[in-house]
Known about the structure:
Helix content: 10-25%
Mean pLDDT: 93
Low-confidence stretches: none
Distance between the termini: 19 Å
Amino acid sequence: MTNVLYTKDDLEFCVSDTFEGIYLTSLLDNMREKLVHGEWDDYDEVHHCCRIIHEFSQRPGLTIDYHLLRRAGEQLGMVMMSHGDIPADIYRSSGLSISDPLGEVVLLNYFHIAPQGRGNGTFWLKELLMPMYAAKGFTAIYLKSSHHKAFPFYDRFGAVIGNYTFPSDNGVFQRTGRIYRLPLETGHGA
Length: 190
């Protein structure tokens, strides 16, 4: 079921507890933009996102929230957040362990806004998502990102707690990434 959490001008910020294929549109738009502008990095976001959705949806006790950004029914963005029975070894390959109690942690698995919806990321994360999860009793958001253009965005909200390197899908490039911890302040609500 999809619920509208907030409206801002002609935008709807929604949340759904079930996955629909249309949610991947913003990932496809971003992949297309990379191809058009010669920034292909041999990393298929849609494939990796679908793999996580499948793996996480099979895990009892793990909840996936699909946050959506829409304008007049057009899908402009998706943020995938997971909480509940988070695997303790989720960042094992990077050699990092989550320091917070796992029941108090939210994982930000994907955050994509299509080019036509950009400029709303800070509002979405800072004013809606972080207060919403803080109000539910979560203490921190953890995330991995290998998108160097996103690093300054996440730097504003938390701290880098780990770095990692891995080969691109076909081994063409080495991708470097960061693991972030974004602290949540209690006493706020969206």
